Amino acid sequence: MGNSKSEIKGTRIILSIGFLSAAGAICFFIFKIPDFWPQMLAIIASAFLGAGATAWITNTLLNNKQKAEEAKERNIKVYENKIQVYSEFISKMWKTLEDDIITDEEIFEIRFDIFNKLIFYLKKEDIEELCKKVENIKNSCDNDGDDSKRTKKTIDCFSEITNLLRADVNGEGHTESTQHISELWNKFGLAPRDTQLLLNTQIETGIKTLEPIEPNKTGSISYNFWHFIMFDNEQIDEAFNNNKNELSLIEYGETWRTNRVKQVKQEDIVFLFRRGGYGYIGAFIVKGWRVFYFEENREEIQKFENDKLTEVKGEQYEKDIEQYDIYYSKNDGATLCANIIVEPIAFDYEGVKYPGGVYRHTISQYPDHYAKILLSRFLKNEIDKKPSYNKLSENIEMAGVNTDKFDTIIKKLNIQPAEKDENGNWK
Questions:
Q1: At residue 401, what are phi and psi to the nearest 5 degrees?
Q2: Are strands 225-229 and 269-274 parallel, antiparallel or unpaired?
Q3: Which of 225, 272, 268 lies closest to 248 in space, CA to CA?
Q4: Of 143, 198, 243, 262, which residue is the least packed, with the fewest Cβ within 10 Å?
Q5: CA-to-CA distance for 359 and 356, rounded, in angstroms?
Q6: CA distances from 2 to 12, 118, 218, 362 (A)
Q7: Where are the chain's structural domains?
Q8: Model pTM greater than 0.70?
Q9: Could you read off the pLDDT of 333-368 as tens digits, one per residue?
Q10: How far is CA 271 from CA 227, 289, 365, 366, in A?
Q11: Burial 296-326 (b: 16+ CB within 10 A, else e)
Q12: Given this model, what pLDDT does residue 316 score?
């Protein structure tokens, strides 16, 4: 910048000399001074004016070039920063779905990132569009329905936001890639990471001993435990009331929940979780599983008692859908419906709470020490002959509860009844 100012100053001096020489030549000509001096001054004026004009043009071109380069460099820097901000935001946004559920805290973080960095680069119309997307995310999280439906809506919202930011970076209008982004996410079919939101830092006990009896004295005592969230209270209550003892979940383009259902083994124990403060309301022994592949018009059934995987199509497939697709998910556009076939061994419609915290996944393996705590609480309610024990509701018995199987498991695991304080709360 300093060199530019000195060059401009030099150009002005040269032009000034040129103009003065030209003025002198004109004066000599007017006052009829001998031809030598006017000609000399005219030559000098012509030289300085030519040099000055050349210098002025050169400086102007150089300055314009410099400004253009500075603007280009600034635009490149802004573009690079925009890509970095957008990519970090998109990465953080999608990371919230690694555990399948987006919480209010994660929504707050998304809002913070939008107003901390993202909004600096957004155009007015993009801000308006983003407002709609964020509202859709919040609405999908507020919906207390099916986990997989909420996840699908959130994935669609994230896909639309990703598409919006990609279009801004690429300098083009909004493309039709939103659906492709959603499909790309679902194609991996991965389960979320097994994380949990711990409400208590210490394990609740209330059990005299958590150590099992020696295997050589009791035979096999190896049980795998599972956590399973109820989707819809009324529909699953109706299914239980009709003796349809199958825990059902559905998927929209994903496969990880179905893959987990197909991992259950004979004699695994599933704990059924109900929202609204109930916690776990039932314990079930796994008898098998079934999966409806709606896009392929077929069904797979695995019943461990005969150790045979059966494929069903045609009329029987349609009858099974009518009977066991309790959420009518085929009519709702689901791609998969997966059921765990179970036998109830303990049930309490008032629930036995949730030691260790709330697990946020639809289905996940459950730690042994927490499982034993739950079994001890069901045992306590059985011993106390609690009115809600083995009841589907206040006036309806839970059909087919195998209390003998429950007692056998309790003895094998050496479970003692949990304890309560004077207020009736679990210790």
A1: -75, 120
A2: parallel
A3: 272
A4: 243
A5: 9
A6: 16, 37, 92, 68
A7: 2-71, 100-187, 215-412
A8: no
A9: 889 999 999 999 999 999 999 887 777 788 988 999
A10: 5, 16, 10, 9
A11: eeebbbbebeeeeeeebeeeebeebbeebbb
A12: 95
CB 165 within 8 A of CB 89: yes
Least confident of 18-22, 71-75, 156-160: 18-22
Q: Pull the structure tokens for residue 101.
A: 């559920």
> Which H or E run contains 165?
helix 147-170
β-strands 363-365, 225-229 pairing = antiparallel
Residue 405's Cα: distance from chain center in Å? 39
For the record, the structure tokens of 334 come out as: 């689901």
**Which amino acid makes up residue 278?**
Y
233-248: pLDDT as tens digits: 788 888 888 888 999 9
Q: At what angle do helices 403-412 and 368-383 cross, to 10 degrees?
A: 130
Q: What does the block give as tokens for 253?
A: 């383009």
DSSP secondary structure string, 194-234? Answer: ---B-S-SS-----S--PPPPHHHHS-----EEEEE-S-HH
**Chain CA centroid to CA 329, Å:** 22
CATH fold, domain 215-412, is ph1033 like fold (3.10.590)
